Amino acid sequence: MKYITSILIVPLATAALTLGLFSVVNGQAKPKYTIKQIMKDALKGGLAKKVVGGEATEKEKIQFLDYAISLYENKPKKGEAASWTRLTGNLVTAAAKIAIDPKASTATLGKAVNCKACHNKHKYDKPK
User: Fold this and answer.
1) C-alpha torsion angle, residues 67, 71, 77, 78 (rounded to 10)
2) Which of 24, 48, 53, 72 would disulfide-bridge 88, Cβ 3.0–4.6 Å?
3) What pTM did the predictor assign?
4) Does residue 21 have a pLDDT over 60?
5) Taking 90 as the threshold, does the pLDDT of residue 58 lie above it?
6) What total of structural domains would you count in the chain?
7) Range 14-20, long-range pairs (CB < 8 A, 24+ positions)
């Protein structure tokens, strides 16, 4: 069962990242959500906590994956693009794994939802 799940997760996560990267590189589409919306609804709103805690419904897991993909598609206001791609890509991969496999461990997602890792490198400090 673990092998079959791995066979499904890798292509799905790769496809999600590829499609997101393709649309961003070609500038064809704006991300579905802004960084501000994602922070408010997915992270500060408690959705991430529910998903990591194993309490989220299937619909909420898919919604979180949608937020993660949008975060990946956004451009950071600060920091290097390669760092942003790595950090948000890890989040998309972990969220996809949880959305596909109900028995998947949430430990990887818990590590990927590390606010400080992203904020230290990419959070824009508003001028005072």
Assistant:
1) 120
2) 72
3) 0.75
4) no
5) yes
6) 1
7) 16/65, 16/69, 16/92, 16/96, 17/72, 17/89, 17/92, 17/93, 20/69, 20/72, 20/73, 20/92
